[in-house]
Fold these 2 entries.
Entry 1:
Amino acid sequence: MKKLFLLFCVAFALVFASCKSTSQETDNGSAASLTDGQIEETEEKNEPDNAASAEDSSKTASALEAAQASRQAAIDAGAKDLYGTAFAANDAAFEAIKALDDGKNHEAELADIKARFDALAAASKAKKLKERIDNEGLAKNAQADYDAGEKALAEFDALLAAAVTPGAALSKKATEAYNSYYAVYFKSYKKFASDERKNALSKKKEADAVKAQIARKDEYKNCANLIIKGDQQYSTSNPEGAFNSYKEATANFDALAKDVAAKRAAAQKAIEEAKAKVQASNEYAAKADVEKPLGDEPVAGIEAEDTVLLEKDEFENPDKEIIKIDENVQEAK
């Protein structure tokens, strides 16, 4: 019995040891398997996470660059002076996002900041254009557009005071104000340019009449080129540039025509005086020939009867030298 009991105990111990060893192996195997699975899963998750982080950083960097460009445009437009408080607040928000450097996507915040800078730039330009329109008295040339600009700018100021207004809404209203004022400016100078072109063509005709195209060919050509330049500016939506070119052409053609006319009158006077001298000389010679004939021998100091004292003031078809310019200029679109 004792031997049998002893054998049973040994067998139980061996079975227990075997079970414990198997359990440890199983547990260890399971733990190792679970840990390996977590590592693999983590690695699988980390790869797309890293890619997403890199993409977010890239998008944020592009948005930062765009916002920076809009910030500079706002500064160039005078927003620091005209809208100092709003500019400083938006600039502070911009600096705060730049300081994060957390690798996250901040496109939405930066888009709003950019839109606010754009709004401040457009509103600043609108204010400056309004001031010019007021100083030059241009509103009467496009009153409806001016009134629309006044309304839009007032609405922009009200929206700007409300901090919750999205940047896109501010930018839209500021752009509306600027475009309305610009319409006043554009229509005014388009009218000025059209009127001044007529003046330039009128002065050109005066220069043509005194044959300035012959007497002062290069100056005449330069004057005509100013009208041609104005036409090009007018046709490319630059009415103020066209106005200035036409105005210069008017002044230059006027001066040229007057100068050529004055010199031509002086030359004509000299011709008349020379003719009078010739006539007096002929009369004196005829009288002397009656009182004391000299015969057919030439006498020093007395020109022959057919001597040409002055060249005739004639040109071979001077109209060929006139630079032709259409009466009408192509409308700016």
Entry 2:
Amino acid sequence: MKRLLILATVALLAGCGPQAPEKKPIPAPTPLVPGGWTKVFASPAETIDVMNRLGFRIGAYAPVQGVYHATGIPTMMGRSDTKQPNVSNVELSGTADKLDAVRFTLDLTDLSDDGFAKKQFVQTITVRFPQLGVSGAEAVTQPIMSERPITGTTSGATYALTRDLLPGGKNHRRLTLTFTPAGSSPDTSQPRNG
């Protein structure tokens, strides 16, 4: 009996101790471009400004042979001590007043580290798309990892993921993820990456 009384007292005291704080869900980031892809395509200057605040490092939006372009500074995705590191980049194109394409590229040239590079590329997209306020990241994550070309639509945009071989190395390749205004066909021609 005494033993039961001691166990009951211990159980009561255990329930009175400090409780772990209740975990609150992490709120989604407030999108920097309310209006999603529709707004992104409608305002090149604002889009570039916002994307640069997110770390994309995009240069001036200027005409080249009648088409406006802006290209980012390539970002290494993995080891930097290799002759040709894997790099990602972004390119925007259109007219002075609106964008007709936003392209994200990943050049896989260090084949010993290409799996890690794809994971980094996916992470960039899945983190920055919600910050930017655009959709589509979840639909392209698995195709990027498997390098499987796809096309589809998301709110305000049509997208295409392509895979092309790059010159200069055995099995060097470029993944290009292109977003264009809803109802258009993505031009999947290869952008410059440097």
